[in-house]
Amino acid sequence: MLIVLVYFALGYPAAKQDLKLDEMLVIFLLAVLANVAYCAVYVADVFAQWSSFRERWRRYRWVLFSIGLIFAGIITRFFAIGFFSIHGNDNVSLLPRDSSIHQMTKNLAT
Known about the structure:
Layout lengths: L1 H9 L1 H7 L2 H30 L3 H31 L15 H10 L1
């Protein structure tokens, strides 16, 4: 959420004008899907807790959590850039307008 808010603030004047209900619903849908993916990890965690690798898993599961958190942050950043760099604001436009991320987020919003 913080990443999305930062990129929204960087592209604020134009981002506010062009942010429509459909785009907000896509952002909400992506947040729900991220939550589902986060909750799905608990299934793997339960099986790891029941296995013979329990002690090793408890010691090192923070590594998997950290990798997942970094990966989620990177994906969120690219989607936020795609949503808010389309407005021509040079502060936010870190991707070219014809980039695949830009096209993907525009296709999701329409």
